[in-house]
Amino acid sequence: MTKIITVITLFICSLLSAQPQFEQGMGKAFQLWGEGKTTEASAMFERIAAAEKTSWLPNYYVALVNTTAAFSEKDRTKLELMLTKAQDALDTEMIKDQNNSELYVMQALIYTAWVVADPMTNGQKYSIKVMEAYAKAKALDPNNPRAVFGEADYQLGGAKWTGVDTKPLCVEVDKAIELFATFKPETPFSPKWGLERALEVQKGCKK
Amino acid sequence: MNTKLLFTAVFLFLSSIIFAQNTISGKVVDEKGKPVPGANIYIDGTYDGATSSETGEFSFETTATGNQYLVVSFLIYETFKKEIEVNNFKNQIVKLKESVNALDAVVITAGTLESGDKARVSVLKPLDIVTTAGSAGNIIAALQTLPGTQTVGEDGRLFVRGGEASETQTFVDGIRVAQPYGATTNNVPTRGRFSPFLFSGIAFSTGGYSAEYGEALSSVLLLNTQDEADYNKTDMGLMSVGLLFGNTQKWAKSSLSVNTAYINLAPYQAVIPQNVEWNNPYQSLSGETVYRYHFTNGIFKLYASFNSEKFDLNQKNINFEEPIRTDLNNNNFYLNTSYKGSIGTGWQLTTGLSYGYSKNKIKFNLSDLDNDENAAQLKLKLRKNVSEHFKLSFGADYFITKFNENFDDNDAISATNGYDSNIAAFYTEGDILFSKNLAAKVGFRLSNNSLLDETTITPRASIAYKVSKTSQFSFAYGDFTQTPVVDYIKYSKYHQFESEKASHYILNYQFTRHGQTFRAEAYYKDYSNLVKYDTRDIQYNSVFNNNGSGYAKGLDLFWRDSNLYKNLEYWISYSYIDSERDYKNFRTTATPNFIANHSLSIVTKYFITDWKSQIGFTNSFSTGRPYDNPNETQFMNGKTKAYNSLSFNWAYLLTTQKILYFSVSNLLGTQNIFGYDYARTPDAAGVYNRQAVLPTADRFFFVGFFWTISQNKNDNQLKNL
């Protein structure tokens, strides 16, 4: 009897503590994202963000979900809405903590999406900001593989226009891949994306 | 411990979790009752929620009980938040209001052509100033490709909608620039003093502008310096007409940019045949600096420029056998400081002061004409966001101008003229956003001029209505006053002059879609109180009055498109104007000589990736301009032939940071004639002889090499060209 009660009590305790709820919610949101339901995933992350003001992760994912979706969005109005939402979510976290390397990587990604959407208008204006954001991210955490890779990837993307030497950039990509191997996310939901794309770019470098 | 009791308690608690699932359902609609898909509906503070479907419907379960806040959010709408009873919220309709601050909310566009980051609809992009063929880095020349402007080749300044060049005022960071143009003489065109280098936004208003700006009858040009420097860098330029050097340093909260230039037109004048005889080529040495400091709640900016210019030339004059020699030296200094920041809740404060000093030393043959002008402005502006629907701004201005001129023919005549003018002004304006589709701005300006001993009140009003996602109409009305130009008021005695006046009525239609902008604007301007005089030239014994009047009416069209063909951008401007005036020493009402009835500009830019090049063409065309032929009885009856100029530029990226730039104006070498100067007296046969007013040279060409040194390998000076 006592055993049963203990089990139940433990179960309840775990239910009552916020952690599993957070994990469940985040898990649900990732699941929606995985199914390609970006609007629903973003909404779920937004709800978690509204309830969990102490974690920067929900808003980070609101930004990431919307920014990555914006890269393939053709409708100009929707694209602007997505990037505005991403920027708003990021701004919320940036005010709380200006020393988080991942937030600057996110910022660079949002600017990159603006450039991709309209290179003629935004190229000149945002390129500088993209590079600044990556520089800041690297300064805060030199071993952040996303910062190292992102910076190189952005310049490689523009290489056909700017004619920069791609060799040192490819060296940076290699370095980022090594960093991905040793990178350990702080929590199960901390950002850990980027390796696949890096490997793809590495292939391009070897051609 | 009573285990049974604990068990019961736990069980009850558990069951409450299991059984207290309440269903929340309903439908999200907009103000017109149309479903809003994709809205986020949730119970505040919980994870429980849903996303509305294509039909706007939602349904979810929540474990929350009692009274809770239901939140419905969607970006372009005001967030809906309402206390509900969770067990009693089913099949409810939630109506969302469109946010008036949404990205695509209506903006008053009558009269204003904007460029820059903050502008929602950019007619010009920051890069355009420098990559427009024929502009040669001159802000003014790039603006002359926009509708509402006149090409007045022998002057170079901005002539807007039937207004004289002096009717346009230039402002840097909201503060007036007293001497915006370089020094020049009769029929030698000038350029804007400001390099496009340091400005991130430009708003060019061709009429109906805000009560914040006064002392301008026709137009205001608003230049805003960048809030932030890009990063540490050094720019160098080697040009066929001189040298450039620039450096930018950026720190945590502040940054400093310095640019210097030395211009000498000797090599150009040696290569291209000139229509005037140069004793000494045009030379200038200039420096500009911007310092910015970011406070927690605001930004302080200091802009200063110094410019020293000289040239010496001989110009033929129909009245004299020998050409007239003009030897000019000009020194100009301009300082502008401003602070912009937020105070309290929803208040925004802008304050600043400017000081301009210009000194000319001109020699016409043996005569000396020296003049100097000191001009200052103090400004304070406050803006309060009273609510999302109402913004109030008010402010005060104080202008001080001191002008002195000495003339000495080194023989018999010597004279001194000058004036001191103080103008105090106050303005207030309200921005009302009735809805996302309807906005209005109403205000007035009160101004007192001590030199004229005059107080004026000028109302301004504008309204904009958005008819669809892509189009909107705006209407603007305003009264404007301006002190008569220095040529008159330097002879002012006993407050004899009055301000000149104009009223603007503007109707604007704008269509915007991604990559495309179309604007059509019809306007009517009514001029009154214009200065008239009774002598051939303006002189100390002229009899002046303020009885002149005039009108200007017309239609401006603008089309810009970047969707037609990949990597191609182009715009087309067309202006039609009908304007007549009775002013100056006009015998009767007539169209002034700077007005061409039809003007057309076509600007193209094409980026060729394989060549790492951007090439551009600009063609400017305008119909003939009137001139007065004293051999005919009718006043101002002559008309010159049409004007046309085709310009070309080519920027080639040697490497990312090294650029080779080439440009040539009037590629076809069209022989343009701006007007005619007639002899004061007829010859023996009773005929007044004439001389054509020509460009100083038919073509201008430019070759330059630009190099940027910075850690960021992607930056270059393409934007500065």
TrEMBL record, chain A:
UniProt keywords (A-Z) are: Signal
Q: Where is the signal peptide?
A: 1-18
Q: Does the keyword Signal apply?
A: yes
Question: How is this protein named in the record?
Answer: Tetratricopeptide repeat protein
Organism of origin is Flavobacterium hydrocarbonoxydans
UniProtKB/TrEMBL annotation, chain B:
| Alphabetized InterPro entries for the sequence | Beta-barrel_TonB_sf, CarboxyPept-like_regulatory, Plug_dom, Plug_dom_sf, TonB-dep_rcpt-like
Query: Where is this gene product found?
Result: Cell outer membrane
Task: Specify the superkingdom.
Answer: Bacteria
Q: Which SUPFAM superfamilies match?
A: Carboxypeptidase regulatory domain-like, Porins
Q: Name one GO cellular component term.
A: cell outer membrane
**Keyword Transport in annotation:** yes
Main localization (coarse): membrane
Q: Which residues form the signal peptide?
A: 1-20
Q: What range(s) does the TonB-dependent receptor plug domain occupy?
A: 121-215
Recorded hits in PROSITE patterns, A to Z, give: TONB_DEPENDENT_REC_3
What's in the keyword line of the UniProt record?
Cell outer membrane, Membrane, Receptor, Signal, Transmembrane, Transmembrane beta strand, Transport
The record gives the membrane topology as: Multi-pass membrane protein
What does the similarity note say? Belongs to the TonB-dependent receptor family.
Report the protein name in the record.
TonB-dependent receptor plug domain-containing protein
